[in-house]
Amino acid sequence: MRIITVFPWLLSIGIVSLAAGCATIKDVNIRQQIMGSNCNQQNVYNYTDEDLPQPLHMLAIEKYLSTQLSYGNLNMANAIGILPDLTRYIDLKRDLDTADLAKRLTILELKQRIDHKINMASLEVSAVASEMDCEEERTSQVANYLKGSENETESKLTIAAIVVGATGAITTGGVIENEAASNTVGIATGITEASLGLLMLFNNRKIDFYHQRNALREVWQGNPVSSNFPPFVWYYLNYTDPDKGISSVRREIIDKWKNFGQISEREDEEGHVLTPIYFGDGGKYTTEELVNRADMYDQLESHITLMKQGLKALSLALERL
Which pTM value belongs to this model? Predict the structure, then answer.
């Protein structure tokens, strides 16, 4: 009779142990994916704050230039370093003498140089965005793997609960004639089913996931320079104009993370603000945290990709001059 009573417990423990063993084997196969990233195919950016463009609102812009181009066009031109060439280009076109061949050649050379820098900036934006996309996909893959392990365990726990329930029903329904023994088996079966239900409820696994090169950390910290973003992209992300009430794209991204509950600043027992796991070198992640990290990279990628719209608008504006 004792064997019948403990059978449901032994069955559930065996199934849970089997599920955990399968997850361990799979962890070895994806170790390289969770320990490091191969998304960055370039050297780390190395520059000083002197290499960054000077903020547009601190520059003396010719009046005729601001009438020909919008504020956004001028700021994008300043970001990619073509403002001097652009100023000279428009100045020459204003006083163009169709018979002056030398001036026409100079205008053509300036236009080619400006177009070349716009195209190179577009390629640079694509390269940075591709790294963000790669890191997002890497995080999503690990999240899917961890979720799969959780689903596998949950399925086995569900099967175990069904088997335990059926076994208890059959045993108490006719196999055991002794009423006291039948009640004991019924209680054991109920406890086992409840325990399996709790295991399903708290079936939240964690996995070690590392990211020493971390673009999210640089966006969060807002240091003067960046090792993840080239100078003109970092200028674009951080540009503010207090006079016009323009806040930085970086601040807008952080505000969205906070407003939608993607990050929260907690304090330890001594009152020190704890850095969210997303902005460190890695650690133990839950599935939800991995999915959230992937979403944060996706949002960052979309804002960087929007620079292409600014570059296109600048190019179209130059064609209309």
Answer: 0.81
